[in-house]
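Hi F.,

I've been meaning to write this up properly since the lab meeting, where we talked about keeping a consistent format for the predictions we share between groups. The idea is simple: the sequence comes first, exactly as it goes in, then the structure tokens exactly as they come out, then a line or two of notes. No screenshots and no reformatting. I'm using this chain as the first example so we have something concrete to point to.
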Amino acid sequence: MEAIALSQDILSRSLKRRYLVFSLLLLATLLLVAINISIGSISYPLSRVWTTLASPGLNDDLGFIIWKIRLPRALAAAMGGAFLAASGLLLQVYFRNPIVGPFILGISSGATVMVSLVMLTSAGLQLAFATPFLTTLAGCVGAYAVMLLVVAIANKVKGGATLLVIGIMMGYLCGAITAILTALAEKEKIKGFILWQLGSFSGFKWVEIWIMIVFGGALLASIYLLSKPLNAFLLGEDYAASMGVNIRRFRLFILLAASSLAGLVTSMAGPVAFIGLAMPHMARLSFGTSDNRILVPGTALMGALVTSLCDLIARMWLSPVELPLSAITAFFGAPIVIALLLKKGVRT
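Output, unedited:
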């Protein structure tokens, strides 16, 4: 009886901790979104900002800034971080490897190549009818292509460090193709592409926000609904099959969902490094569990929080100069990668 009571007490404490962490993450994310909406290079009284936010029909300067610039950017940063973090979690479950993510595996670089093909060549003009969906579609196609190559190679090699090197090499190859396209492009197109390549959530339009909400939101909801099969898959394919999971279809879903989320964000905001790799680990440490029923929403919230913070730093640290977003996210992600490699003792 004492053992049962102790077990129930431990479970109760664990649940309280998780509810507390969820609440703090949600409040912190909402607070950061509010801060991103409220402050900028031009300062306004906070009361006026919130009055404008509550009145979409206002046509003054502040109304334009809030509804056309700051609010879309704040929402895009939060959703983009959530989608990249969820993508990284799926890839880590699929490969059962803690040092993989969409940027590390070259998936974001694959999306960059296809977007560069649209932005730097005449392909975008020939398919102008598909705008604004063209870059999104191109980013997803590039992500799928690199993901297929990485999976094919990963099936022939063993070891976490080897997979890491493969991902880095894929990134270099994609970077070489992008550099060639940039060298051959017209000067007018190069400037816009270079600014996009730095990574930023600025300039988002509402049509792009709705694409993220509908497409990315549906994928994120689907991932959460499949949290139990993800837990079974994490314990091994044989175990998952014994629990009734169709392994072939489930593997395909994981790859498509992870690549789609990474491609969606990259096509709109440019390459954003380390969020997909680092956030799942921060979520595991914060919640103290590997249960994907908790980690899927927890990782998404963690990604939204950290990406919103990084976007705020990139925007305001040296204002009016805006820093590259990936330069800021690297300060969060790179130390985590180093710590994981040291902790796991990964060897080639």
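Notes:
The chain is about 80% helix and 0% strand.
The domain at 61-344 is CATH 1.10.3470.10 (ABC transporter involved in vitamin B12 uptake, BtuC).

If this format works for you, I'll send the rest the same way.

G.
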